[in-house]
Amino acid sequence: MYEHILVPTDGSDVAEAAVERAIDLAAKYDATVHALYVIDIDATTLSLGTEQVDRLRQGKLDEMPEVKAEAEEATGVVADAARDAGLDVEEHIRTGSPARAIRKFVDENEIDLIVMGSHGRAGLSRTLLGSVTEKVLRRTRVPVLVVDIDGEEADE
């Protein structure tokens, strides 16, 4: 049923809450897990200079070790969990608008299921910028399993 399961991550606790569900499904269906970190160019512009953002847009991630390390740490959490479960896993880093980059990745990689947290931002920034999960839900044609960290905690 599922051959390729995508786990978009921003390294947050909310994103990590989705990992267990994705690994469980991947194990049941012997699916490959794809861990995806998207460097949000719009958010990065606020903290980096124009020259550094241009490097990201040109795909020169190796010239930005701090940004690359953050991305690799986030995808590494997913990859380690998948490997511990004996699953095939691939780590990916992209730049751009997170929701758009996720949708593009899905289209280009024959993803069968997306498993993601309910939100990565909180408060005013989430309201102003919109929920990545909501945008993915509304604009993708593959099933999306949304893991709500608040609901997870309430069950305990």
TrEMBL record:
This is Universal stress protein UspA. Pfam families: Usp. SUPFAM superfamilies: Adenine nucleotide alpha hydrolases-like. It comes from Halarchaeum grantii. InterPro entries: Rossmann-like_a/b/a_fold (IPR014729), Universal_stress_UspA (IPR006015), UspA (IPR006016). It comes from the Archaea. Residues 1-147 form the UspA domain. Belongs to the universal stress protein A family.
